[in-house]
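Hi R.,

Here's the chain you asked about this morning:
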Amino acid sequence: MNRFSGILVSIALCGFYLAFNSGQAVQFFTLAGSNFRVVLSILPPVFILLGLFDAWVPRERVTALIGEKSGLVGAGLSI
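And here is the predicted structure, written out as tokens:
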């Protein structure tokens, strides 16, 4: 089994379900499209902020705050 077999089986099961329930298929694709647009509107600002963070904050500082020996403070900052 390859690493995508679980995803492919899930897509196939959803496809079979939606093939027999056409009323819910329209609702499914409408909701999926709406969620996809929301994700696409959020991702560019997140990537821009990550790039700025990477450029402005020294790597040693990040390693000290979120590294292996940071404890609960590092866990809290990473969330």
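One quick note: Residues 5-78 form one domain.

Cheers,
M.
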